[in-house]
Amino acid sequence: LGPPAVTSLRVGFAALILWLIWRPNARQVDRAGWLALLPYGVSLGLMNLAYYLALERIPLGLTVTLEFIGPLAVAVLSSRRAADFVWVGLAALGLLLIVPWPGQAGALDPLGVTLALFAGVCWGVYIWAGQRVAGVFAGPQGVALGMTIAAITTLPFGALLGAQQGAWTHLTPVVLLTALGVAVLSSALPYSLEMGALRSLS
User: Fold this and answer.
1) Residue 48: per-residue pLDDT
2) I need a labelling partner for 119 at 20 to 30 A (CA). Which of 38, 43, 66, 180 fits?
């Protein structure tokens, strides 16, 4: 289907599932709630889109590794212990060692690397914004509303770029069922669990 269509299906199905389960009431959200939800949902949508676009150009393991720079940056910015900086420095060194640099055999697609790094930035914003959402919404309604914003964010890319790539002509019941499974196991369930973790972890 291609990255834009896959992202739209994954995030869109996840939003639909979360709405059906938790039944959030958007009319009850105040200004503080929307100020927390908007960066959370937009970063969530763009993170998924950039991640899939990167996977199209560079290997899976390296994509995930480069994307992890986002959480590392959050750890550095929020840490006050010297030992934490040592571990983050070692992780950064590991990143530098595994990246095939230009001119080397198997040098990487620069756009793919950039997309993976952008996904990492979005991941960092997602963590920061997610803690704000966890502080505003006592229950899982924040995840449902945030996922809906993510779905709206990715929808234009999926609709337009997916149509250009001919993705929507390949939809079959099996493909839709697979996308639904990915939405449950990769978005609806883990992001709901993660929101619970963000309420209790620094």
Assistant:
1) 96
2) 180
Using DSSP, state whether 43 is helix, strand or coil.
helix
Phi and psi dihedrals of 164, rounded to 5?
A: -60, -35
Tell me what the pLDDT averaged over the chain comes to. 90
DSSP 52-63: HHHHTTS-HHHH
Q: Is 195 exposed, middle or buried (0-12, 13-18, 19+ CB in 10 A)?
A: buried
**Size (the chain), residues:** 202
pTM: 0.88
Task: Provide CB contacts within 8 A for 197, sequence distance 6+.
Answer: none
Token pair in block for residue 105: 């055999």
Q: Write phi, then psi, for 57 (nearest 5 degrees).
A: -120, -25
